[in-house]
């Protein structure tokens, strides 16, 4: 059966409106892993010479701040890894946020993974405090991956295995 020409494009228009309404055609729903891979160094305020590294935070709807605290060889230390949403976003408190430390020759982490139950989670921030022991004196690079989600009124963005790193000077 032939439809009048004014009704032929109606189905496509409806699909496009649905896509626009739910963000499916805007490109915003791309996996977060395809985001900008460049790095930016963020200085820490609590440990002299310590730095934290994450992806280019200007391109992300959150920032990560790492307070590595002091480290003494052979003694347990703890860093604070805190993700904070950008203006207009909030942390997704229902997402199973996590931190997984990378393996390092000069460091032993107390847990191989910190789950959401190990974190402090609010709409304003997600904070992990991984405990670790440095086994040799001097500067040690530490790293791992966080998984978080941030939302605004239109969309929730998932960031799985977002790399973070920091250094400590063990005495």
Please sum up the structure shown.
This protein has two helices and 13 strands; from the N terminus they run ααβββββββββββββ. It is mainly beta. The N terminus is likely disordered.
Describe the overall structure.
The chain is mainly β and 171 residues long. It has a single domain (38-170), classed as Immunoglobulins (Immunoglobulin-like). Helix content is 10%, strand content 42%. The protein has helices at residues 5-8, 10-22, and strands at residues 39-43, 51-55, 62-67, 76-78, 80-85, 90-91, 98-101, 107-109, 120-121, 126-128, 131-134, 138-151, 156-170. Strands 1, 2, 6, 7, 12 and 13 form a six-stranded antiparallel β-sheet that branches. A four-stranded antiparallel β-sheet has the order 3-5-10-9, with no helix packed on it. Strands 4-11-8 form a three-stranded antiparallel β-sheet, with no helix packed on it. The longest helix is centred in the N-terminal third of the chain and has 13 residues, at 10-22. It starts with a helix and ends with a strand. 26% of the residues are buried. Residues 1-51 have low confidence and may be disordered.
């Amino acid at each position: 059966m032939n439809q009048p020409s004014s009704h032929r494009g109606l189905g496509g228009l409806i699909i496009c409106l649905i896509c626009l309404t739910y963000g499916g055609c805007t490109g915003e729903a791309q996996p977060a892993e395809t985001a900008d891979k460049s790095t930016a160094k963020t200085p820490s305020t609590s440990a002299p010479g310590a730095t934290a590294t994450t992806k280019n935070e200007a391109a992300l709807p959150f920032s990560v701040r790492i307070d590595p605290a002091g480290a003494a060889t052979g003694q347990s230390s703890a860093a604070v890894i805190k993700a904070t949403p950008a203006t207009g976003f909030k942390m997704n408190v229902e997402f199973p946020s996590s931190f997984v430390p990378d393996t390092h020759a000069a460091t032993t982490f107390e847990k191989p993974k910190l789950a959401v139950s190990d974190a402090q989670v609010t709409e304003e921030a997600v904070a992990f405090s991984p405990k670790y022991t440095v086994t040799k004196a001097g500067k040690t690079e530490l790293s791992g991956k966080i998984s978080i989600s941030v939302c605004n009124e239109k969309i929730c963005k998932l960031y799985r295995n977002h790399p973070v790193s920091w250094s400590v000077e063990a005495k």
